[in-house]
Automatic annotation (TrEMBL):
This is Diaminopimelate decarboxylase. Its cofactor is pyridoxal 5'-phosphate. It comes from the Bacteria. Signal peptide: none annotated. Gene3D superfamilies: Alanine racemase (3.20.20.10), Lyase, Ornithine Decarboxylase, Chain A, domain 1 (2.40.37.10). Keywords: Pyridoxal phosphate. The active site is at C389 (proton donor). It comes from Brevibacterium sandarakinum. SUPFAM superfamilies: Alanine racemase C-terminal domain-like (SSF50621), PLP-binding barrel (SSF51419). The keyword Nuclease does not apply. The modification N6-(pyridoxal phosphate)lysine is found at K92. Residues 66-320 form the Orn/DAP/Arg decarboxylase 2 N-terminal domain. One of its GO terms (biological process) is lysine biosynthetic process via diaminopimelate.
Length: 479
């Protein structure tokens, strides 16, 4: 298995930024500093503040913009060739408008799974035909809108297909439409993320009795069904296992095309295969492994027929995880039961999966002193705790770390996807500010990606000012 050698530069850039943030941070004041080696750029015409950690902003998200662009270029290069490939970035991994706008301008597509994500993709500048709508629970109005817009759709089940039939009412559609197939190819090490199990909620199970023939009949009856979707890869799934699921669906597409040619004289009814995303990420170290090139090589060896079709990919975590870092400071530290406990401001609100499923989603902890230097101290068993009011709100449990003290800085790398970009408002903890950065030779440049949430905004989302008086509704016929 190859590893990408950009790991060390990413680490060096991250350490420079942490040093710069530490320099600009003033614990005693909420005034914003710029730091001696920090410059500020703007996003959408809005000046970006230089990030800092203080009493009012004790946790921030950082995204290495060079790593974002490098990762996308590695993906494009890995899948380059004669086949037309649409790399639809998974919106759910990073629903942040400036980053999605970057991908739109770079020529990517966008995979969405809700009306909100669809609106965000359109606002970011993705053309409708470069958007893939994958929700397994599309409402009637959502389907009608997708047809009107011309976005690509993957249909989850036969009832949804019937609903689409009624909307089209015998007409064809310009949208690329396919059916999501569950190849039922097995479970990975993280059950909750395994999408190709025997009883997965996604798609139509191909191994079920009569399913294959029913699917072929569905395609033959609808010449506008011209793509097919499978998502067998995920964190905890090997490349070989992901490829096995794709191979099953490629064989189905080939059979549909043979039957369509024989019975209806159609030339290649299915022209595109959406292989989903799910390339695993190495959360244990800096190396980027497996790589997109590794995955392409496995697919070429195990499923060469895939490259006779146009392709959609739906990567998210593999594109963005390594670019992100959560940064917080230790507010208090204590020792209880022989274990050091570092109380920070980063927990379930920015690392929900790690707090609730720590065995499946362990994160590295990088300790720094208040000046932003890597912490050097006696190593002791440590819990790195978040601020939320439940005992399991931990970023790390019983981890051997240099002794952490109040004022130290804790960095949590590999969190650029599904972490601070997807906040959880437990205890009404605010959405944290997110900054992009580039650590050049002369300076660290920042760009504000998302402002932190104010207390006024939190209150505005907490509901109506009071419970309104009840209004009696009298049913017809009641006396």
């Amino acid at each position: 298995m190859h590893s990408n050698q950009s790991g060390p530069p990413v680490q060096a850039s991250r350490e420079r930024v942490i040093k710069a943030v530490a320099k600009s941070s003033t614990r005693e004041s909420s005034a914003v500093g710029t730091g001696a080696d920090a410059t500020v750029t703007a996003v959408n015409g809005v000046d970006a503040q230089s990030p800092q950690l203080d009493d009012t902003t004790p946790v921030i998200g950082l995204i290495d913009l060079d790593q974002v662009s490098d990762a996308y270029e590695r993906l494009r290069t890995a899948f380059s060739g004669g086949t037309d490939v649409l790399h639809a970035v998974a919106c759910k991994a990073v629903p942040l408008l400036p980053l999605l706008r970057y991908y739109a301008e770079a020529g990517a597509g966008c995979e969405v799974a809700s009306p909100g994500e669809l609106d965000l993709a359109l606002t970011a500048g993705f053309a409708p035909e470069r958007i893939v709508f994958d929700s397994p629970a599309k409402t009637l109005s959502e389907l009608k809108r997708a047809v009107t817009l011309g976005v690509s759709m993957n249909i989850d089940n036969y009832e949804e297909l019937d609903r689409l039939d009624a909307i089209l009412d015998g007409r064809t559609t310009s949208a690329r439409v396919g059916i999501r197939i569950n190849p039922q190819s097995g479970t990975g090490t993280i059950g909750a993320l395994s999408t190709a199990t025997q009883t997965s909620k996604f798609g139509i199970g191909l191994a079920d009795a009569g399913a294959r023939e029913a699917l072929i009949d569905a395609y033959l009856a609808r010449p506008w069904l011209n793509q097919i979707h499978v998502h067998s890869g995920s964190q905890g799934i090997s490349l070989d296992q992901a490829a096995a699921g794709i191979e099953i669906v490629v064989e189905l597409a080939q059979e549909i095309n043979r039957r369509a040619a024989q019975t209806h004289g159609r030339d290649r009814q299915v022209t595109r295969i959406d292989i989903g995303g799910g390339l695993p990420v190495n959360f244990a170290g800096e190396e980027i492994t497996p790589t997109f090139a590794d995955y392409r090589a496995v697919l070429a060896a195990q499923v060469p027929g895939l490259f006779d079709f146009d392709i959609i990919t739906e990567f998210g975590r593999a594109l963005l995880a390594k670019a992100g870092t959560i940064l917080t400071h230790v507010e208090y530290a204590k020792t209880t039961g022989g274990r050091r406990i570092a109380m920070t401001h980063a927990g379930v609100q920015v690392a929900t999966r790690t707090a609730y499923a720590p065995a499946d989603w362990p994160l590295r902890i990088l300790p720094f002193d208040p000046d932003g230097n890597p912490k050097s101290a006696e190593e002791v068993p440590t819990d790195v705790a978040g601020p939320a009011c439940f005992a399991g709100d931990l970023l790390a449990r019983d981890r051997v770390l240099p002794r952490l003290d109040a004022g130290d800085i804790v960095a949590v790398p590999d969190t650029g996807a599904y972490y601070f970009s997807n906040p959880f408002s437990y205890n009404l903890l605010p959405r944290v500010p997110v900054y992009g950065y580039r650590a050049n030779q002369g300076a660290v440049e920042y760009a504000l990606i998302r402002r932190g949430q104010s207390r006024e905004e939190i209150l505005a989302e907490a509901g109506e000012p009071e419970i309104a008086p009840y209004r009696l509704v009298q049913n017809e016929g009641d006396s």
